[in-house]
Amino acid sequence: MTAVVDERRNVYVPRDVVYAAMEAAPDIYWKLIIALSRFGGLRNPSEVLSLKWENIHWDWEQGKHRILVISPKTERHPNGSQRLIPMFKELIPLLQVALQERPEGAVHVISKHRSKADVSDNWADSNLREPNVGYIKTCKNRSMAKVIPRNASKL
User: Fold this and answer.
1) What single DSSP character describes residue 63?
2) How many angstroms from the chain centroid is the CA of residue 94?
3) 118 or 61: whose pLDDT is higher?
4) What pLDDT digit, counting tens, does each position of 9-43 carry?
5) How many structural domains are present in the chain?
6) Cis amide linkage into residue 103, ω under 30° from 0
7) What share of the chain is helix, strand, coil (3-state, %, to 5)?
8) Distance separating alpha carbons of residues 50 and 117, to the nearest angstrom
9) Is there a domain that residue 22 lies in?
10) Which residues pair with 70 in a beta bridge?
11) For residues 64 and 113, is the Cβ–Cβ distance under 8 A?
């Protein structure tokens, strides 16, 4: 079986558009959702909502911070359930703020905006697309919509 690729969805989203969307986002969690998708390459919502604080590895001595990404989408493949990625400089200050502001006992990095993910332990029912539409409109650039999943349902 050959995968069908819709080339119209392959759109480069410039940094200035991403930063504008992050600026329009109402809190650190939305900023992180956008940044983790664009700068970390995490799948949204599955990998973004699955990310836990225990998977954030700070190495201040060598300056080589890493993120262990657990991938529900590829977990059925051999060695496909996780990958280790570098923590790009765009993510560091956002993760630091989120770490300082996290609620007591928070397990997930995105500890807010995840009501359906927490109730059903299923990120697929979480709506990360609908609220982002407003941030995208603020940016006046529809190409940002390409990084937000279309199959998301209401929160």
Assistant:
1) T
2) 12
3) 61
4) 777 888 888 898 898 888 999 999 999 999 999 98
5) 1
6) no
7) 45, 10, 45
8) 9
9) yes
10) 82
11) no
Query: How many CB atoms are located within 10 Å of the residue 61 CB?
Result: 6
pTM as predicted: 0.75
Is residue 3 included in any domain, yes or no?
no
Supply the range of the domain harboring residue 142.
12-147
**Tens of pLDDT, residues 53-107:** 999 999 989 989 999 998 877 777 777 688 999 999 999 999 999 999 999 999 9
- The one-letter code for the residue type at 48 is V
On whether residue 138 sits in a domain, the answer given is yes
Q: Is residue 104 domain-resident?
A: yes
* DSSP single-letter state for residue 103: P
Residue closest to 67 by CA, chosen among 91, 43, 44, 49: 91
pLDDT for res 17: 85
Neighbour count for residue 136 (Cβ, 10 Å): 22
